[in-house]
Amino acid sequence: SLASTAITCFTRGLDLRKGTEDVLCPANCPLWQFYVFGDGVYASLSSICGAAIHRGVISNAGGAVRVQTLPGQENYPAVNANGIQSQALSRWASSFSVTPATKDTALEAVGRSVSTARPSTGKRPKKTLDKKAGNKDCKADIAFLIDGSYNIGQRRFNLQKNFIGKVAVMLGIGTEGPHVGVVQASEHPRIEFYLKNFTAAKEVLFAIKELGFRGGNSNTGKALKHTAQKFFTLENGARKGIPKIIVVFLDGWPSDDLEEAGIVAREFGVNVFIVSVAKPTTEELGMVQDIGFVDKAVCRTNGFFSYQMPTWFGTTKYVKPLVQKLCSHEQMFCSKTCYNSINIAFLIDGSSSVGESNFRLMLDFVSNVAKAFEISDIGSKVAAVQFTYDQRPEFGFTDYITKEKVLSAIRNIRYMSGGTATGDAISFTTRNVFGPVKDGPNKNFLIVLTDGQSYDDVRGPAAAAQKAGITVFSVGVAWAPLDDLKDMASEPRESHTFFTREFTGLEQMVPDIIRSICKDFLDSKQ
Fold first, then answer.
1. Do 318 and 420 lie in a common domain?
2. Do residues 388 and 360 lie in contact, with contact meaning Cβ atoms separated by under 8 Å?
3. Cβ(183)–Cβ(227) below 8 Å
4. Same domain, 210 and 258
5. Cα end-to-end distance, the chain, whole Å
6. Does residue 126 sit within a domain?
7. What pTM did the predictor assign?
8. In CATH, what number is assigned to the domain containing residue 216?
9. Is 364 helix (H, G, I), strand (E, B) or coil?
10. Where are the alpha helices (DSSP H) in 56-171?
């Protein structure tokens, strides 16, 4: 039999090197921290001990588990079992299964256990922590949205400040570590300090001590919306590619509605956590506008983004678990938004019925849609193909990685003039433009712009594009037949088909198309 290796709560399938390995899971891993994909067959991204508890092979008391490496697959399902909610994943390169390890292996591992305090990164922790740099493993830009309402009162307000101070110190704030700022919610929100103001824990602690209690209603919704929109700008110190997080502290319940603020935060790519202290009692529930206020505001309702403390007293033991959540950057699902995580290809009709001046109006439309997205090497990407009977790739997804360059490339597209073979053009784009990015992280969209009847079949090529994971929008002008447009569009066809009689009508469609793209993006993430 194999000797078993002691692993940590955080060791993933992909951290193991052998095809079959016996491991020993520690006791008392925090269930909410487990990151598990699938059911029975787990994506290798999953925590091994989490998968073993999910499968029922061990309990939270830990124990020996046999891990078998398996090939990757598509569509790992999300299943709730044994206190763990696994998540869905559309595909991953490798998998594993877990079964009970044989009895005699457990004995050999005794005395060789490994500390479980730190997630295993496979690297030995360096003892000399560069104080200025801070904790480089924790990548986060955090706004603490603190409760400054009459609900909490001066005394508990001070306890809240102490707690936030402890969280700030444990985060490991530094130039290359997490950055934090504070916003106080009361009648009107007030940004107390921004991310850029301090990069050392000492300074942050001092700034928190100095905060004055404002009083007023707890208009948390208003403060959350204000913070999501105004706090994380580049001028105010937000960093590119670092998760944006708002931690809302709520004593009791909000005086206003959180639903709209939650939607705005998700749209702005902000991950909202709610720390509720002293939840409303049964008698008080009658005064709460919306009992489900936590679920309306958090990034996802999977339990990860909500956190409860019974009172503001004796909160020290709650500091570390909260810090671990805030530093789990791979769990920050809301950082990805429709604006920064999609690929859009434009398929532009260059046939002779369009004409030079209308062709310019089509290019203006393409620019106006592209302009709305955050185009960068780590963000969204844009490509364009012009077609007649032939196809001419104007530029691909990786040719230009700044918005200025993409917009200038669109302006420089020259009108071809010729016939209309839309079906061929869709097949060409699926193969040559989307082919190279099909395993990338971004969601794929194709916008087909045409002014007339296609000489070839569009239904087959459009179905193949959709099967390849591309969402198709059809935008028709002038003589484009509605049947063709509907045949090309993704389901539901009504919301993916657009038509205007005149080329000048394209401009009015831009906001609706952007909204539809964002809606599709959000629906695909739920």
1. no
2. no
3. yes
4. yes
5. 43
6. no
7. 0.58
8. 3.40.50.410
9. helix
10. 103-109, 153-171
Beta strands in 19-140 (DSSP E): 20-25, 38-39, 41-43, 63-76, 80-81, 84-85, 89-100
In the predicted model, what is the mean pLDDT of the chain?
A: 88
Question: How do residues 174-229 score in pLDDT, each as one tens digit?
Answer: 988 999 999 999 999 999 999 999 888 889 998 999 899 999 888 999 999 999 99
Residue 144 identity (one-letter amino acid): F
CA 405 to chain centre: 26
Find, among 277, 223, 226, 209, the residue nearest to 249 by Cα: 277
Residue with tokens 């256990």: 113
What DSSP assignment string belongs to 238-279?
--TTS-EEEEEEEES--SS--HHHHHHHHHTTEEEEEEEESP
Flag whether 115 is in a domain. Answer: no
Range of the domain at 50: 3-98
301 domain residue, yes or no: yes
Q: Using one digit for the tens of pLDDT, what is the confidence trace for 488-524?
A: 999 999 999 999 999 999 999 999 999 899 889 888 8
Residues 347 and 392: their CA atoms lie apart, in Å, by 10
- Using alpha carbons, select from 513, 515, 483 the residue that is nearest to residue 498: 513
> Distance between CA atoms of 464 and 83, rounded to whole angstroms?
40
Query: 221 by DSSP, 3-state: which?
Result: helix
Nearest to 334 by CA among 463, 204, 232: 232
Q: Which helix (H) or strand (E) holds 222?
A: helix 220-230
Give tens-digit pLDDT for 361-391: 999 999 999 999 989 887 899 999 999 999 9
* Planar angle of CA 32, 37, 39, nearest 5 degrees: 105
Would you say the C-alpha torsion 303, 304, 305, 310 has a positive or negative sign?
Answer: positive
Identify residue 425 by its one-letter amino acid code: A
235 and 209 Cβ atoms separated by less than 8 Å: no
On whether both 289 and 421 belong to a single domain, the answer is no
